[in-house]
Amino acid sequence: MKKKLIPGLLITAFLFSILAPTGFAQKKSFSFNVTPNQNSGVAYSAPNPKDDSEQKAYIYTTKHNVISADRFYYNVRKTPSISSTSYTGYIRVTSANVKKIVKSYSIKANKGQSLVLQADTDIYSVHSEGYWYS
Fold this sequence. Notes:
The structure is a single chain. By secondary structure, the protein is mainly β. Helix content is 13%, strand content 39%. The chain has one helix spanning 2-19; strands at 27-34, 42-44, 48-49, 56-64, 72-77, 91-93, 100-104, 114-121, 126-133. The strands form two sheets. Strands 2, 3, 5, 6 and 8 form a five-stranded antiparallel β-sheet that branches. It is globular and about 55 Å long. It starts with a helix and ends with a strand.
C-alpha cells in the first residue's frame, strides 16, 4: 500500500504546483532618453502594478549606451516625482551591472500598489530600454 501511496502523492503535489495560481509581478517595458539639461536629467516609466508580495525590483536593460564613467541611476518610486517615496533608493547603473539589477525595497511596497521606475543621469546623455518587474 505504501509503495502506491507515495508516488500518488508526489504526482498529486506536482500537478497542484503546475495548476495552482501563483502571484507574479507584472512585466512592464521602459524606454528612457535622459540628458542632464532636460527635466533635470530625470525620466519615468509608466506605472507598474505590484502583483506579488516579494519586496524586490528586477530590472533588465536590453539596449543601452551606458559606459562605466556615466553617473546613471534607477530608482523605484511611488509616483513620477523626485519628491515622492523612494522604495529602493538610487541604484547606480554601470556597464558591468546594466543587464540585470535586483534590488530589495528599503520601504515596504504593498501588493496592488502601482510603482514607477525612474531614470536619472548627472553627467552624460543616456539611452536605456528594457523591462522590469516591481
